Each structure stands twice: as structure tokens, then as C-alpha cells.
Amino acid sequence: MMKTDLKSLTREELTAEITALGEKPFRAGQLYQWMHQKLARDYDEMTNLPKALRETLREQYGYTSHTLVDRRISKLDGTEKYLFGLADGNVIESVLMRYQFGNSVCISSQAGCRMGCRFCASTIGGLTRNLLPSEMLDQVYAIQKLTGERVSHVVVMGTGEPLDNYDNLLRFLKLLTDENGLHISQRNITVSTCGLTEQIRKLADEKLQITLALSLHAPSQKKRMELMPVAYKYDISEVLDACRYYFEQTGRRMTFEYSLVDGVNASVEDARELARLLGGMNCHINLIPVNPVSERNYTQPGRSGVLAFKNVLENCGKTVTIRREMGRDIAGACGQLRKGYLDKHKQAGPDAVC
How far apart are CA 217 and CA 250, in angstroms? Predict the structure, then answer.
């Protein structure tokens, strides 16, 4: 039987578990603080807990603490990319980006991904499994512990489709924003989705103050189907209706992520069509020159093409930014570091992945 994962429990749930062991409720508060404020990597660090209790916890409960497999630091911009090992032998990747407004960590929500977006390395190989709330949290915790620097912003845009792991995502958000933990503001959290409309509407009804970013990547249903298999299930009009509902319920402006692929979706006419598609919506458009992936033949448009695309949107009254490329020299594109690691160990044989 799978052990209860302590780091995924709310403070109330943790108190119930600890008192069921015959301990005083204040021990739960101490344990919660060690996990979510002091970011203890194991029970041995929890020096104000009785040794007998620590041994009981070690025997009866799971405690998520990622193993650092690889750490790469960009010589171009200081971006740091991490490959973490999970308890079952899977690996996930996370990224630390430093900005003037603070440190932002991009985390994975799944090991692998089943969405199949054509330009993304994360989905090559499919979905292995969902991550637990603690496995999402510990990416943030481990990076803050390793760097000694405060994380102020979190984006759930790494490997996986967050809304495909909906219940674990919601619990993760609750723990991350808890005043007894890191207490990161909801407004400093962004969650990405490729467009699972039922879950978008469900998330809207939670009335959280997080930013929702839709991976749009095309100005029409036809082109979206070419790039994103999820479009075969959800028509672009249906997805945008769900985005409008999210804004109505939360008051939070939508962000639309748009990867520019030369010769596919990056022409001036594509920009005009995109402006018409998003007409009247309170939104921000984030243009992303596509990251080269060896398994795909997609390439970025030239700088002049990117600027021309941006200018069309701005002339139509849209708020637009071009995402600054970060970490290209350290396998910066989502999923590249993990895939390279898995490919290497697959070639070495099945026993090579611990």
C-alpha cells in the first residue's frame, strides 16, 4: 500500500494524522513549518521533534525530497535548469529565471505529457504519470534551498499539462500560497494550459487570482489542428469562450502564448487573423520564437518577421510582448534536458535509470 505523502497534506490534515499517532497537535505545526518554511530535506533536520516521532514518521509516511540529477547554468543569461530525480526513478525538470522583479521558477506538473503539441520536446515519449502536489512543491523548495535565494514567482509551464492533473494542481496551489508556508501570492502564479475547456471553467469557478495562460499558437482552428492535437477535441471558439468565462469569474486578464513558427503561423496575415480572433478580449499576447527541437524541423522567423507580427497586433490595439529567450545554451526549451537524459540512459540499457 502506498504511504501517505506528508508534504501533500494541508495543515488541518497533518494535524489529524499527528494526533492519531498520539502526539499533541502542536507537533503538526512544528512539522509543517519544517516542511514548508524551513524546507527541510529530511527528518534528521527536524531537531525539535522527538527522535521517536521522527522514526515513526519515517516508517509510516512518505516524504518527498527530490534528488538533484543535473544542474546547468547558462553562460548567456544566468538561467539555471535543474533535472530532479523522483522516488520512483522518474526525472523531471525545472528552471530558475532571475528578473528585476524577483526570482521565477518554472515547474513541471507531470512526468511527460500526452498532449502531443508538434513543436514541444516535453510530449515526445508521452505521459508517464501525474506529479503529486508535493512533487510540484519540492521543485520550488529544492531550488530555493540550493540557491539560498527567495522565489517570488512560480509558473506552471514546464513538462505536462497542468489541468490534466487538476486535483493535484489545486492542492499544490493551496499549499504554495498558504500563509504558514512560502506564502507566495496568487497573483505571482501563472498556470498554463493547452485548452482543456471543462477544466478552465472549473478553475474559473474557484475564483483564484492566478494568471491563466492559454497556449494558443494559431490564429484559426485549421492551423491549430496542425500544431496541437488537442484542437481535434476542443474547437478554438469553444476554448476562447472558456477563456472569456475565466475573465468574467476572476477579473484576471488572460494571457495567450503564441509560438512563432516560420512558414507555419508567423506571417503578417496570420497576425491580422489573430487580432480579429481575439477582438474585444481583455488579454495579453506573449510571442515566443519557437525553440529549435532536434526531432522537429520547425524554425524561428527572423527578427524582422517577429517584429512585423508584433507591430500588426499592436496596431490593432493588443498588448504584446516578445518572450526573451533564456537558457538556450543549457537545453532551455521545455522537456529537452529530461529527454536528453532519458535517451542517454535508454541507450545505456534499462538498468541505467535508477
Answer: 24
